[in-house]
């Protein structure tokens, strides 16, 4: 990929500075970028969506490793830079000037004729929202490799009973697998963030998982309601959940074999799935994801 420049050189030439409101911290070490791409274990036929390509540090290695790359960049100036740098490669790369939270995952997978691979250095403010979007569109995604703030990565991979265990920990364990790959220090970025980063790999199995019979949005709402009041017992945290009568909630706990006096961090992901399943059996309607 010709035209790759360091962030320092880019801002000297073009003026301005990294946009704080977009969480821009540019990776400066090519060897680390190469390790991230290697963790994705790409094949020539793979189609990759890169989140926030910036100045193309990861892009340079992706283009050598797979068949086609979608670059989703919200910063219009960086998107224009990438389009100019990659001029003449429209057969293998496409720049999307948009918020990745609005990206059409299903459409891109259908166009590719295969499930997608997602790679990116994720700004803090979109790390969790993007992961929820990927979970929602998991059937269009094979796996992803992401660099996130270390505390966020720890939440992705947290086990029951730990302080980091929460909504995404539960959902990622139910619908996929999470692996911490390696850590990256602040000194490898411009400007350097105040915290360490962690590269994680998330895989979504091709076969149907054991909770596909449970409405995803209802399950997410149940888990979210429980952890919003994580210091309370489950019965108190879920009291009045979606207008449920206390008797219906008690019946769901009993059918799932869950003690309502427990706190949410003690439940396994499978416990949450069982609770949601029994809430549905008790007559609770699926959740409207647009509400």
Give an overview in words:
The protein is α/β, with parallel strands linked by helices and 291 residues long. The protein has two domains: 7-203, Rossmann fold (3-Layer(aba) Sandwich), CATH 3.40.50.150; 216-281, Helicase, Ruva Protein, domain 3 (Orthogonal Bundle), CATH 1.10.8.100. It contains twelve helices and nine strands. It has helices spanning 7-14, 30-39, 57-62, 76-85, 105-112, 124-136, 150-157, 167-175, 216-228, 234-237, 246-256, 269-281; strands at residues 26-27, 47-51, 68-72, 93-96, 116-121, 141-149, 177-184, 189-190, 197-203. Helix 9 (216-228) packs across helix 12. It is elongated, with a radius of gyration of 21 Å. The termini are far apart.
Kindly provide the radius of gyration, computed on alpha-carbon positions and rounded to a whole number of angstroms.
Answer: 21 Å
Q: How would you write the strand order of the largest sheet?
A: 4-3-2-5-6-9-7
Report the uncertain regions. Answer: none
Percent in strands: 15-25%
Helix-strand pattern: HEHEHEHEHEHEHHEEEHHHH
Q: For the report, how would you describe the main beta sheet?
A: 7 strands, mixed
Number of domains: 2
Q: If you average the pLDDT, what whole number results?
A: 92
The best one-word shape is elongated
Using DSSP, what is the number of strands? Answer: 9
Under the CATH scheme, which class of the largest domain? Alpha Beta
CATH topology of the largest domain, what is it called?
Rossmann fold
The separation of the N and C termini measures 43 Å
Question: What is the H level of CATH, i.e. the homologous superfamily of the largest domain?
Answer: Vaccinia Virus protein VP39
CATH architectural type of the largest domain:
3-Layer(aba) Sandwich
SS-based class: alpha/beta
Portion of residues in helices? 25-40%
Q: Enumerate how many helices there are, as a single number.
A: 12
């Amino acid at each position: 990929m010709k035209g790759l420049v360091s962030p320092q050189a880019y801002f000297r030439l073009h003026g301005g500075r990294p946009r704080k409101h977009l969480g821009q911290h540019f990776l400066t070490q090519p060897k680390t970028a190469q390790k991230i791409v290697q963790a994705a274990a790409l094949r020539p036929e793979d189609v990759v969506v890169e989140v926030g390509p910036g100045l193309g540090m990861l892009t340079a290695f992706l283009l050598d490793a797979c068949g086609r790359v979608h670059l989703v960049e919200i910063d219009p100036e960086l998107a224009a830079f990438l389009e100019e740098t990659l001029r003449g490669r429209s057969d293998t790369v496409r720049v999307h000037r948009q918020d990745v939270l609005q990206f059409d995952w299903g459409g891109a997978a259908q166009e590719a004729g295969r499930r997608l691979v997602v790679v990116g250095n994720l700004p803090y403010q979109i790390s969790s929202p993007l992961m929820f979007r990927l979970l929602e569109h998991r059937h269009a995604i094979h796996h992803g490799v992401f660099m996130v703030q270390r505390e966020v990565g720890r939440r992705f991979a947290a086990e029951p009973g730990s302080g980091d265990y929460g909504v995404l920990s539960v959902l990622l364990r139910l619908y996929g697998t999470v692996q911490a790959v390696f850590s990256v220090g602040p000194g490898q970025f411009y400007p350097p963030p105040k915290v360490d980063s962690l590269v994680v790999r998330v895989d979504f199995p091709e076969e149907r998982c054991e909770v596909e019979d449970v409405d995803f949005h209802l399950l997410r709402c149940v888990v979210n309601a429980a952890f919003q009041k994580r210091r309370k017992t489950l019965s108190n945290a879920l009291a009045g959940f979606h207008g449920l009568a206390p008797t219906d909630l008690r019946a769901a706990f009993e059918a799932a074999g869950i003690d309502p006096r427990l706190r949410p961090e003690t439940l396994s992901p499978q416990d949450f799935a069982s609770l949601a399943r029994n809430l549905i059996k008790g007559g609770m309607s699926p959740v409207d994801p647009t509400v």
